[in-house]
Write a structure and sequence with these properties.
By secondary structure, the protein is an alpha/beta fold. It has helices at residues 2-17, 21-38, 41-53, 59-85, 88-92, 101-110, 124-134, 147-156, 173-184, 217-225, 263-275, 309-319; strands at 95-99, 114-117, 138-141, 167-170, 188-191, 202-207, 210-215, 228-240, 243-252. The longest helix is centred in the first third of the chain and has 27 residues, at 59-85. It is globular, with a radius of gyration of 20 Å.
Amino acid sequence: MADFAARVLYLLASLVARLPWPLLRALADALARHWQRSDTRMARVVRRNLELAHPDLLPAQRALLQGRVLGTTARQFFETLQLWTRPPARNLARIRETQGVELFDAALASGRGLIVAAPHYGSWELLNQWLASRTALAILYAPPESNIGEAFLRRVRATHGDARRVTQVRAEGVAVRQLFKLLKDGGVAGILPDQQPKAGDGEFAPFFGTPALTMTLLPRLAQRTGATVLAGYCERIGDDADGPLFALRFEPAPADIADPLQGIAALNAMVERVARRDPAQYQWTYKRYSIPPAGSPLGNPYWPECYPAKVVARAEAEAK
């Protein structure tokens, strides 16, 4: 049932993605204006994140940045439909600039293993396709709550018509063993380093000045395998009549990212450095700080304004 529903969703996504990009861009911009004017839950999450991450900005400046973030988010929705349903060769032609590819090539040739840390910045889906065009790789992902959603993602993230399939690894306990063996054998792993792990599966480190629960998996893998770590991302640099244009960039990770004590702070610093390039391209729609450190006076900064009313009502009823 889930596979059938995923095929139907894929067909619908293909139909939408065939619309001209100027029309999709106009639809996205109208949708973003609606989100901001209606102060939707997504808009409130973005505003709260910007208050935490950019306290130096004036309210009017944050409102302007919030609008840009929502605009990017809406455009990214349609952009991603295109990337998921078009041939990879057509998608890769959207990359018009490259930086640091020699770092990737050298790490691949070394045979020591390679971890590509891909922040939620720009288009990580296009980065996945570029990586798959160069090598076999495993991608660590957090499965959606819906079986249909997971079946859909597994379908669209497979490389179309390429014998070198992308191995998609669920972010669960067994992932450590799978990725450890892969890297020890000189393989390539793609990891989104700024996903908040489950409580107890990470440690706290500053992210834009606020403690954020951060994965320890990537630093541990780097420490135990000796694999090279690179930050990788596809940054939007404009668009044309066919869709967005991108620059593919690779950067070396901080030297202490494999340090057992400093690794997670170095990881967050790396993500923060990328996000500051163009804050509107970072995924501020994500509740990055929803699990606070024990005893934190801040608590969950998104509660209750950034949660569905039924969730808040249920929590209030249980608290009585």
